[in-house]
Amino acid sequence: MGTGFGIDIGGTGIKGAPVDLAQGVLAGERVRIPTPQPATVPAVLDTVVAVVEQAGWDGPLGCTFPGIVRHGVVGSAANVDHSWIGTDLAAELSGRLGHPVTVLNDADAAGIAEMRFGAGRGVAGVVLIATLGTGIGTALFVDGKLVPNTEFGHLEIDGYDAEKRAASSVKTNEGLSYKAWSTRLQRYFSHVEALLSPDLIIVGGGISKKAEKFLPRLELQAPIVPAQLLNQSGIVGAAVSAMG
Ligand code: BGC
Fold first, then answer.
1. What are the E-state strand segments in 21-125?
2. Is the pLDDT of residue 228 over 80?
3. How do the residues of the chain divide into helix, strand and coil, expressed in percent and rounded to 5?
4. Which of the listed CATH numbers 3.30.470.10, 3.90.249.10, 3.40.50.970, 3.30.420.40 matches domain 3-108+232-242?
5. Which atom of ligand 1 is nearest to the CA of 131?
6. CA 49 – ligand 1 centroid, Å
7. Which pLDDT score, from 0 to 100, does residue 231 have?
8. pTM for the structure as a whole
9. pLDDT per residue over 130-177, tens digit each?
10. How many whole angstroms from 186 Cα to the centroid of ligand 1?
């Protein structure tokens, strides 16, 4: 299976590393460059190229983006510069790097990694991965197959865009306790569960490291478990999707 390379474009950092495709772990040092502000298209493209060059990677790769990505083209930009909408990120990057580049939604990448190497390994039926960070990203799998670009972070619940109430950035910005935030998560996941009847819910994002502080408070029909790859899942999932 060999080694692939994954890039994760996030709101604060652009990270890249070689990935051991058999084990789902990083196969070398991770390079991180802060996301340029404002995160305009040319500035981010330059930064991605710099990450690849610093890592010394010369081959096909996968890259995440925090919005809808259809056939390489960005379709939404909830938490990034709106000039991204309509950009053919796959074509721009492969043109600059001289190799094929596969681009996919960040939560979809995290989901692919969890299904192959983490909490979703071997799980059949309907599995929902939700990443709690600046926003809420979701990835939906049916018998291991991804339904790409689900945007269940933007469900309207009680008159709010759901991620504006329940993302982990909201916990930080509003100074919510785990208990208070869990009430919001309960509302969110109950609603999602009523719509999708998942067999398993996997919760990712940096805050999943503290899962014991909030997951035990949630009462749902499906088991709800923390992601296992933590903050490497975007890089791993991007590399996997590029190389199979
Ligand atoms: C975006 C999703 C993304 C999620 C996490 C949401 O605001 O609409 O596409 O997966 O944030 O970054």
1. 25-26, 31-34, 61-65, 69-70, 73-74, 101-105
2. yes
3. 40, 25, 35
4. 3.30.420.40
5. 5
6. 23
7. 82
8. 0.97
9. 999 999 999 999 999 999 999 999 999 999 999 999 999 999 999 999
10. 20
